[in-house]
Amino acid sequence: MPSFQHRKAVGDAHELRVAQELTWRGWNVNAWGQGVLTDPVRSALRGTASTLRWTPDLIIAKEQQIALIDCKSRMTSRATSRHVVERAAVTAHLQLVAWTLLPVYYVFEDLDVLTPHDVLTAGRHGPYSSAGSGSPYYLVPVSRSLAFDTTFGAQRSTGLSAAA
Question: What gap in Å lies between CA 8 and CA 147, rounded to an integer?
Answer without folding.
Answer: 28
